[in-house]
């Protein structure tokens, strides 16, 4: 079962596509959002959730105070589930704060590369949770397309298999650290203030 962990829609159960996606475990999501809250990276954030699946990461951010969330999911069944989950989260948030407008959540039912080609930033927080079989070159191209769309203080979280190599970071994005959770590895990165310099190596836990 996948659910919203905390915030205005906390404990809400989310629908999950029957196949083709790999939901982020509660343990990993709790680790992600504990770190983001410690950085004060959620309030009024503009969030981009690439390879959204059920939309759990982006919608968790919406529940915890993000102001604008885009869920990018190419598979039509999964994109429809994103819509249903987004509607359920919006209703839960409105019940908790009836006089507030709540976050804006949009679904982009298209490929990540197509979305990034025409996207308008800046984004404050980006989740990238591609299928583990996504080629490293394709991931590198998408990171390169993302770099100019980031706010100078943005946070980028890439979820990969622990057996996958470190992503190839483009000019404009530099790794901060990696964290391992069993078969899952999280790579944390941020905009590079000196994009012409070689990317600094990430620091393992």
Automatic annotation (TrEMBL):
State the InterPro entries in the record.
DNA_methylase_N6_adenine_CS, RNA_MeTrfase_RsmD, SAM-dependent_MTases_sf
What are the protein's UniProt keywords?
Methyltransferase, Transferase
Annotated region (Disordered) at 182-205
Q: Which domain of life is it from?
A: Bacteria
Documented EC number(s): 2.1.1.171
Q: Which SUPFAM superfamilies does the record cross-reference, listed alphabetically?
A: S-adenosyl-L-methionine-dependent methyltransferases
A Pfam family recorded for this sequence? Cons_hypoth95
| Methyltransferase as UniProt keyword | yes
**Entry keyword annotation includes Methyltransferase:** yes
What GO terms are given for molecular function? 16S rRNA (guanine(966)-N(2))-methyltransferase activity; nucleic acid binding
Protein name (Swiss-Prot/TrEMBL): 16S rRNA (Guanine(966)-N(2))-methyltransferase RsmD
Q: Which organism is it from?
A: Agromyces agglutinans
**Organismal lineage:** Bacteria, Bacillati, Actinomycetota, Actinomycetes, Micrococcales
Underlying gene? rsmD
């Amino acid at each position: 079962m996948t659910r919203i962990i905390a915030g205005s829609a906390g404990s809400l159960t989310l629908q999950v596509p029957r196949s083709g996606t790999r939901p982020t475990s509660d343990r990993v999501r709790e680790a992600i959002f504990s770190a983001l809250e410690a950085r004060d990276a959620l309030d009024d954030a503009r969030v981009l959730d690439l390879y959204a699946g059920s939309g759990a990461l982006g919608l968790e951010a919406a529940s915890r105070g993000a102001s604008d969330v885009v869920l990018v999911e190419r598979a039509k069944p999964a994109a429809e589930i994103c819509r249903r989950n987004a509607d359920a989260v919006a209703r839960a948030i409105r019940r908790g704060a009836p006089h507030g407008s709540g976050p804006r959540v949009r679904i982009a039912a298209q490929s990540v590369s197509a979305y990034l080609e025409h996207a308008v930033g800046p984004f404050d927080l980006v989740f990238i949770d591609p299928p583990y079989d996504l080629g490293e070159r394709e991931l590198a191209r998408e990171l390169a397309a993302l770099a100019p769309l980031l706010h100078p203080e943005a946070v980028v979280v890439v979820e990969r298999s622990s057996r996958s190599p470190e992503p190839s970071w483009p000019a404009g994005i530099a790794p901060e650290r990696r964290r391992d959770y069993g078969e899952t590895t999280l790579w944390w990165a941020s905009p590079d203030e000196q994009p012409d310099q070689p990317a600094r190596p990430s620091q393992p836990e």
